[in-house]
Amino acid sequence: MQPESPRGGSPSLPSRLAGPAVSLALLAIILAIASFFAGDYLQRILIIIGINTILVVSLNLSNGFTGVFSLGHVGFMAIGAYTAAVLTLPVSLKVVNLPSLPHWLQQLALPFLPATLIAGLLAMLVAFLVGLSLMRLKGAYISVATLGFLVIVQVILVNWDQVTRGARTFAGVPPHSTLWNVWIWAVVAVYIVWRLGASAFGRDMRAARDNEVAALSLGISVLRSRLLAFCLSAFLTGVAGSLWAHFITSFSPKSFYFTQAFNIITMLVIGGLGSVSGSVIGVFFITVLSELLRNAERGFDLGVFRLPPIYGASQILMAVLFVLVIVFRPAGLLGGREIDVRAILRRLGAPRRGKGAA
Amino acid sequence: MSALELLLQQLINAVSIGSLYALMAIGLAMVFGILRLINFAHGDLIMVGSYVALLLQVLGLPFPVAAVAGVAASTLAGLAMERVAYRPLRGAHEIAMLLTSFSVTIFLENLAIILFRPTSRPFPAPAVLRSVITMGQLRVAGLDLIAIAVTAVLLAALTLFVRRTNIGIAMRAASQDLLAARLMGINVNRVIATAFAIGSFLAGVVGLLWSARVGKVDPLMGFNPVLKAFVASVIGGLGSLPGAVLGAYVLGGLEILLQGLLPSGLTPYRDALVFAILIALLLLRPNGILGSTEKEKI
Amino acid sequence: MLKLEAVDVAYGHIKALVGVSLEVREGELVALLGANGAGKSTALMTISGIVRPREGTVVYNGTDLAKANPFDIVGLGVIQCPEGRRIFGGLTVLENLRMGAVRRADSSGVRRDLDSVFSLFPVLGQRRHQTGATLSGGEQQMLAIARALMGAPSLLLLDEPSLGLAPIVVQAIFRVIRELHRRGVTILLVEQNVRQALAVADRGYVLAAGRVILAGSGGELRSDPELEQAYLSTAPEAGR
After folding, report:
1. Could you report the predicted ipTM of this complex, rounded to two decimals?
2. Residue B157 CB: number of other CB atoms within 10 A?
3. How far away is chain B from the Cα of C5, in angstroms, using its nearest Cα?
4. Which residues of chain B are within 8 Å of residue C147 when distances are taken between CB atoms?
5. Residue B164: how many CB atoms within 10 A of its CB?
């Protein structure tokens, strides 16, 4: 969100595009370099970062902007993942792995994009139905209700054998997710949330978040803005689920439960609720950190002695880090504000002219 | 078995499991009432006590000693949790505290996984807890009767405590108006620590009964109980102690009812249905059964 | 007894008190007046240790209150009857009073004070087993004052005791305040009801926008034309 220039009125078009343009250019360069030169491992990390970006940015749309603190958003990711996977799985595999699937579904094998879109839409539909009831609740009650939603989704996944293979691994998903299509979706997601946050609708949402009664008296429909944000964020999370499914190619209901939910929330909180650029930074920081920690978990040589494998240590460290951030910097790394690219460019580009340049 | 005997059997089941939920829910409600904190790590206190009791038995100590040690361990763990994780966050936003309690859960669960391996271990329970009493066609688990009796005693003791003792009344006062309590010179730190101590003690007791019931312990055993306890609290009205107890028995009854009524194909979905009913209930009574029905006055 | 000197209190960027100095001597009834938002409640909360001053000193009989916590401050005998009464609605009248005395160790003294409080407020004695929420506004105010008295205060801080009460109830409350003053209880009275407050006060201060703009004896303030100005205008240098 670019601030207005001090003279009032919107800044001119070229300067407004400076921020997004610079970011996109940087991104494209990084991706191009990575796709040609980076090894498999690095590319996988970049894909994970991309998917996490979508997850965190869409969670921000719900939690950060509207104050509806959904703890069960991973449920939408699960819905997206399973839906898309069932749709894209080759017919031959379906016959073997999902023999009781209804005939029309079994004979169907969709390409990636339609399947992903359907996955997102189905997640959104569920969000609408669930949200109609949840959005009326307040504060802690909403969070607990969303947790209930997560449990419901988990129970259904584990028991609806015919479609999900129950608790068994769902394997053989075609690896459609690439560096480029994941990041294109990430850019789309960031764009949507960014624009929404900067729009009048975004302002309404934040007003409703900060003071419901005041917002109501201004005629802002709190229910409607929350529901819309919730559904949209579910759509994006569902899409992310599909991308995840086609990246990791095999998963089970356990992949979409409490631990995953906590990881996403950690990234969100560390980056800062309500800040889109903060979300991205949070994702980068946590993904890289958890990868490093996971490698360290396997134990390594410190020259003098060998550190034994401590599985679960990375989670503990993340939990401690999380608490430290909450205690000492509760607004997240960016304090709920966005990065002002123009200000950075200004500072880099015009040291001689001094103040009053913009 | 006649219909009456079946009903009685199920009733005992429901009251037994409701009792365990009640002991858990009280701990949650006490802390929530004063601090507005939903302590998800409360479930892990069950786990801590159970593992300590298990370890001591493995080391050869008799069950009574191990049991006392287990409950003591839970109590200490709860007090430590309050001192280390929650006190620095006094006055922080609701959500921040909720998320912190998640972190504590993750911390404790992973610590347990590191120390004890993620698989479950059998929990040795003494004969009295494994006994089955037969009365006619009725088969009642000794454990159920003990759970019900223990809960009744503890609830009675707790009621006396919050009605008669200064610190008990202070706890109720603090959960109604924390600022006024401070202005009266109530030692809020001590009141909060007491609330945690009592809740953790109860969790320790639940841990023993639960482990004996299920027959095993594992690092993640606390998650489901705390979720259920939370549902019970919400049903009865968050923060209210009688509400927590009522909600717990309603939940226990609901679970047993659904278990009996659901066609066999659907029984695995029981937990999902319980949550769905909870959400429906919250729509009708957003503050729980015993919570106020007043809309927020402006 | 109580002395505030150049006290500054801020909530984030908002300055609530600026350079406030005031004094309450033993046995006095001092009124603290001012319009809404002038900082009166903040002053009391600072004295009680709930809010910490950024600058200045708050000294009570030689003890620096600015460094003490509320628990200890009550132990010194400084007890507040907060704005809006804030009684414990779910507790009975008796339990409320018991909480007022929770810091005390002398049970015989507590029993005596209980009798004294019931003679001062007979209606509370009649309703002693009723919960606080079932009392009327006036009865709740009496309970709040009684609860504070149960702490055996040497300095009683009253925050807007007449707020939201019917005139006839207000008169009853002020009769009680007058009686307490007669018994020698030192009182710092925050009020918006200027007439009643100045009728019982020995001295008074007037706050506006966080600063003390007027000070004097009850009589002086009553006849000061700038007093009305202080309530109507929000400018810190009202009159002069």
Report:
1. 0.87
2. 10
3. 23
4. 184
5. 9
